[in-house]
Automatic annotation (TrEMBL), chain A:
InterPro entries on file: ABC2_TM (IPR013525), ABC2_TM_bact-type (IPR047817), ABC_2_transport (IPR000412), Nod_factor_ABC_transporter (IPR051784)
Location of the protein in the cell: Membrane
Protein name: ABC-type transport system permease
Lineage: Archaea, Methanobacteriati, Methanobacteriota, Stenosarchaea group, Halobacteria
Entry keywords, A to Z: Membrane, Transmembrane, Transmembrane helix
TrEMBL record, chain B:
Location of the ABC transporter domain: 14-237
Keyword Membrane belongs to the record: no
Source organism phylogeny: Archaea, Methanobacteriati, Methanobacteriota, Stenosarchaea group, Halobacteria
Domain of life, source organism: Archaea
Family membership: Belongs to the ABC transporter superfamily.
CDD domains: ABC_DR_subfamily_A
Protein name: ABC-type transport system ATP-binding protein
GO molecular function: ATP binding; ATP hydrolysis activity
Keywords: ATP-binding, Nucleotide-binding, Transport
Amino acid sequence: MTAAETGGTDETAAAVETRETADGGQTRGFAEAARRVRAEAVAETRAFIRRRTAVFFTFFFPVFIVLIFGVLVKTGATGGLFSRPDTYYLPAYLGVVVVLTPLSRVGSTVARNRASRRFEKLATTPLSRLEWLSAHAAVNVALIGLAGVLLVGVLAAVGDLGAAPSLGGDALVVAFLVVGIALFCGLGSLIGSLADSEDGVIAASNAVGIPMVLLADTFVPASRLPAALRPVVDALPLTYFARGVRAAVAGGQLPTALSDLAILCGFAVALFALSARLLPWRE
Amino acid sequence: MSGHTAAESTRPAVTATAVRKQYGDTVAVRDVSLDVHEGEVFGLIGPNGAGKSTLLGLLTGTRIPTEGSVRVFGESPTAVDRSRMSVLPQEFSPHRRLSGRELVSYYAGLYPDPLSVDEVLDRVGLDAGDAATAYTDLSGGQQRRVCVGAALVNDPELLFLDEPTTGIDPAGRRDVWDLVDSLADGGTAVVLTTHYMAEAEHLADRVGLLTDGELVRVGPPRDLVQRFGGETRLAVRTERPRALDLDATPLDGRRYGDYEYRFFDAGPDDLTAMLDHLDAADIAYEEVSLVRPTLEDVYLNLASERGHDCIASAGPAGLAGNAEVTR
């Protein structure tokens, strides 16, 4: 074996060792990040469960929505409001929950954390802003996901959802819910970071969320809106949620659903990254 | 009293060099330089709005200096390993519906190698019953113990405490003092702000007086008291108004209001002489005391030099060390 070969062997061994060390460090870093996210998520879940009013409205808000719009306001096949099959409005009902609950919940949490100086404390711990937001998105995905299941159950009980969607359709709807909730958690966090108080968060959440719910091809088909509003409709992330869920539930429209899911993911990544960056961690 | 293991030979845990913080035209912190060493307790005192919390924010990295630099263990405070430091912000309020144990456990979960939750609860003096109680149902003092516990959970080498004993009863305050003492003795560098002069005098190895964002004096409390505290004074409070004829007293003095008299640069012999004089003149008195200057006098003297009308709190040990005769 030549010296060069020996050197080469040593270099290779060193390189392997370095790579293994780096891999080990990465694994350890990931495990520690997961531990921090878990700690934040557990604390947030405990805090949420003990706020009885918040629990009540998180789970019964969707039920109220279905009962009011799906049963009381419904005009049937004669035309007018809610004259289409219930399946058509499923994305709208889900959209209401997916938009409004995270906006107000995460926005208020951000405002509360800033006012109580919790962010100032967290900024000096190993927890990062992205980890904090991920923990809160995970908690909201679980809670609002449950609320969504409850909503579908109520709609199935009082309305007509038609044939059960396929397994693939179900999985797609779940994917839309997860991505949509995470997206609007990001938007809620952004509102919480920019508003100056919890009251401001609620006002801003309503100002952003309610028009979005009405315009995003949900209860009112985009074709019935003035042409001037179409670009606005196309710019709203909820539009892709509503259209994608509708396509997934209808079946046979997989490319459309996947395309909408991809666009929704794009919105989610952009908003999540922006809102994590703007969290009031430091001044 | 202070007297921890810190020495100039130990490494500085935190160093600020000509740090300035400006918001528009308002200068919140003005060219402050300081260093705090391992095992040292550094107390920041000053009037409301002097810039104490802003300076603390600059040292912890939660605020960015307009000019100057801060190094924590030789690194930028935002880049340093955050397991090595901890902060208890002023008016900090954790999740109100979580118990003390859950809160300490939560903060422990954010660090790679935290102390055990039981050990932290024990150190801050929370028994099992209090630790299981929701934060919102605890007394103010117990709540503050939980917050201090949250700040200790990573066994920090550098600890920032922004008014750690505000709202705590005297016994709880003593517990926190003991805790800070033991941390410093174990090598932890502690930077604390306080409005309680007795607290600063008791805990701090060095004190920095901040007024208008400027660190006007830094030194051990005893040195500051000797240099800027003024003279020992004799205070007399009579039972009847204007009972004492200052021309006839054995010391030069002044009357404050109708009942209070103060005689400056007095000693123990003067106390005896004054008591003899009061008895001889048959003047009824409520109190005669020899008042040694404290850090509070330093604070009041230096702050008033800079035009501040301060009302400092003497805290629980404000009159410690003073000879007093009451009738």
